[in-house]
């Protein structure tokens, strides 16, 4: 697993090269739906938030069997399933065909590849051999390219270059930081707090801790958590000292947001067991995103080692899928 995390900068470069081969341009699009589950959906989440800053159309990420009622021939439906066999995503594909949506598929093989070939649906094959959560670069940059070619977003090339440089230059310090923090996190319950715009990577950190570390975790976002969750820091008192708050911070925080986060932590820090922060490297939103991903992935890996568990297998997910297929 750690070798895969080490290779994230190369995966970004390779996924960018692969994405250059996409020669499809969708026209007449009024809205975008990105369908996927688990690790395959996180790329859609990042694209949604990136597009909210640099795009001109609404994007919705659907983790379900059903499409929204508004989906029609003016909808671009991007179906993402690393395995190609995710039943919810296959369902979205079929529903999208019935609604005459314009469809693009991202997969490594499986039923979605077969259906796409048979029905002449545009698709891209990404490399096999990864766990879906480890293929984040291949599950995000093709989405970005499709949206760019269809003139739905404007991609700043300097931001892409910064992603690569930040990942390469920050790798060793990220590993050192993650290794040290993972020792403090053992037998604790992480509460990950981020700005709303970083919700995808806060969610990813939590799900990486779930899958890699085989441990529970929770996330919430500012400013919403200041309208509800902040009040909950009173009970149950007997376990609250086991809660470990991790805030996700960046140099691009607005003054108002910085003040809000600082005050919130001041109000609750004595109630939690411990408080720390992950600081994103880089100046651009995209560089911040991938810096958080790199640091969070290392943290989940080292925490898995502290718990003495293999980060790769996800036995309960596999067993659930087996039973669902019966």
TrEMBL record:
Q: Which UniProt keywords apply?
A: Isomerase
Gene Ontology terms: biological process = carbohydrate derivative metabolic process; carbohydrate metabolic process
Domain spans labelled SIS: 22-163
| InterPro entries for the chain | Glu6P/Mann6P_isomerase_C, SIS_dom, SIS_dom_sf
Tell me which stretches of the chain form a coiled coil: none
Task: List the transmembrane segments.
Answer: none
- Which GO molecular-function terms appear in the entry? carbohydrate derivative binding; glucose-6-phosphate isomerase activity; mannose-6-phosphate isomerase activity
Q: Which CDD domains match?
A: SIS_PGI_PMI_2
Q: Spell out the family assignment given in the record's similarity comment.
A: Belongs to the PGI/PMI family.
Q: From the Swiss-Prot or TrEMBL record, give the protein name.
A: Bifunctional phosphoglucose/phosphomannose isomerase
Source organism per entry reads candidate division WOR-3 bacterium
